[in-house]
Fold this protein.
Amino acid sequence: MDWSTACSGDRKRIRLDYLELSMKCAENFDRDELLGVMGHYKYQTNLTKQLDTIYNDKFDQNIVNEIVLWKINRYARLSEGALKSLNALKNLPLGAHREARLPLEQLMDHSGIDLPMASTLLRFRNPQAFQIIDRRAYRAIFCVPYPLHSTTPIIKKIDTYFAYLEKVIKLSISKNLDFQIIDRILYQLDKDNNGTLSSAKTEKYPRRE
């Protein structure tokens, strides 16, 4: 390794250490401050209100399409087996999320569905047990960048998601917050306080990342 390569590596490590030290983490805010960021949450307002009312409905392809539109404006066709597994999670109680390993595997086996999208489908299917994981929400609660990539093994993605949900549950209890809105609080908290996401692309349509 030459000197310039070594220096470049050192600069990257220093920058990462600085970013982690400067992150504003959800645990360092009180309940009122966390709830306050919801006043800034304007993400696809009309569609969000519509999707918030569907948790008692049976999920079909039309609902899945609208959730995909809410997330990244991408069409995703699910197999009948994946839809059946998704609907079976409707009444799963808080804290029982590890029972969703097989449905998550089935969802992520579909082209165009990675963990953030799979977690979005689970969250709208059953908001009492699941919340969305994405780069902003993860960064806000763990104070480190989102560690997963498209090539990360599915088993690691699912384990990361379950660890995230367990952290979200602890935050909701410690701050006396409604579990069902924690992911939105985290998303907005990170957007308001932690700046842009690395390698984030400018898109015609805004999306949660």
